[in-house]
Structures are given as C-alpha cells and as structure tokens.
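Hi Q.,

Before the meeting this afternoon, I wanted you to have the protoporphyrin IX containing FE prediction in hand. No need to reply - just skim if you have a minute. The sequence and ligand are here:
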Amino acid sequence: MTEYVLFSCVALALLTCKLGFVSTCIFCCSLFQTSNSLAFLLYNLARSPDKQDKLRAEVTRVLPRDGHMTTEHLNRLPYMKACVKESMRLYFPVVIAASRILAEDAVLGGYLVPKGTCVINCNNISCLQSEYFPNPHTYSPERWMKEDNVQPHPFLMLPFGHGPRMCLGKRFAEQQMYIAVSKLVQNFTIQHTGSEDIGITYTSFGKPDEPLGLTVTPRSNNVLQEKH
Ligand code: HEM
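Predicted structure with the ligand bound:
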C-alpha cells in the first residue's frame, strides 16, 4: 500500500514540477517493468521448489523476520541475487537492452562496421545460447555463484544496459525485487498451479504471455523460527 502511495506521489510530483510527461512515462513504465521481472522470478521459484528452499534458508539465516533489509544484509545474500539474475536471464526483461550509434568505425566479430551505424546488443538471444549457458532453458541460479569457477561473461547479460547511459533505476529496481522476494519466501511458500512453460511477450518490455498461476501459502511460525 505504502508503495502505491509513494508511486502516485512521485508520478504526481514529476508531472507538476515540470520534469514533464516523458519522465513520468519513463518512471511509470519502468515500475511495470520491475513488477514483470518480479512476476517471472516468483514463477521460476515456484517451479523450482529446491531453489526456493535454498533461497529461504539463506534469507532466514541472514534477515530478521520483522526487520528492514540493510546494505549489510544484502551483502550476505549472494544466492538471492543469483536467483534474480538467473530469472532475468531466462526471461530477459527488454527487447533491446543497449543500442548505440557508433562514433567511429569498429570491427565487430570480424566485420567492419562503419561509424554512424546503430548497433544493437541482442542479450535476449545470447542469454539463451548453449555455447554460453549450458542447459540454457534450466533455471539454475548456481551458475552465477562465485564458487562456480566458470562464470558467464558479464557482457552476455546486461538487462540494465551499460556505461554512462545505463539504466538510472537499476539499483532501485534491483532493491525492490530483493526486498519483495526475500520477504515473500521468508513468510510464504510459493507454488505454481498455472499452465506449464509460460512464455514472454514483448511490447517495449517483456511480460508473461498468459496469466501466471501462483499459490501463496503462509508459513507456520515454527518453520519461520530463525536460527541466529
Ligand atoms: C527491471 C527493471 C528495469 C529494467 C530491466 C530496465 C532496463 C533499462 C535499459 C536496458 C535501459 C537502457 C540502458 C542503456 O542504453 O545502456 C534503461 C534506461 C533507463 N531506465 Fe531503466 N530499467 C528498469 C527499471 C527502471 C526504473 C525503476 C527506473 C526509474 C525509477 C528506470 C529509469 C531509467 C531511465 C531514466 C533510463 C534512461 C537512462 C539514460 O538514457 O541515460 N528504469 N533501463
């Protein structure tokens, strides 16, 4: 509820303080983008109960049940970050993550590309290629964990773009997802009851191509008891 009030206030403030219609659109659309990514994340966790349990164990170990999440907590939740990243790999949130007009000639993949050409980084394709990600259609947050020696190349997966024009809301969006998923798995069991193999459809942003069937069941206090 607080978030909706905050959302409305910021949107209203942007409109009235002459930052203008465009910034309001960017802000509002971006929030929908975050919620779509969160929806896919819950769907992936619901379909992988073992990953969900592993995530719950990490969150329960680190995060007080009724407390706020701090930077210090975030630094101790590597599996949670891997879960988010892996979900965005499987369901890449945008069609075009970064596109740039070349300021000078460049050789890309052995081809000379003249300056002035618009180059589009097709991360939504590279993210699902088996040469970069073994078993590319499997939800496996472990592939992003530091203990895994072979980490994917960071440029294969840039959902927020890169460089000076990268997404301004990256930290904001990530933290919203971190807080939401942590609190949800800490307090609820999430099960998948909808149809199999939900796809992603793109307008500007990616969203589920049919409604997600998720059942959220409160966890008993015994299960929630923290072991500090
Ligand atoms: C999952 C959520 C989000 C994703 C995947 C996302 C993705 C992106 C991408 C790919 C770009 C282009 C970056 C580039 O060209 O290198 C971008 C730009 C931008 N994003 Fe986001 N975004 C998200 C959430 C947000 C939020 C919540 C906000 C604001 C509150 C926001 C504000 C912006 C702005 C202002 C730009 C333009 C930056 C510039 O051109 O300098 N985004 N976003």
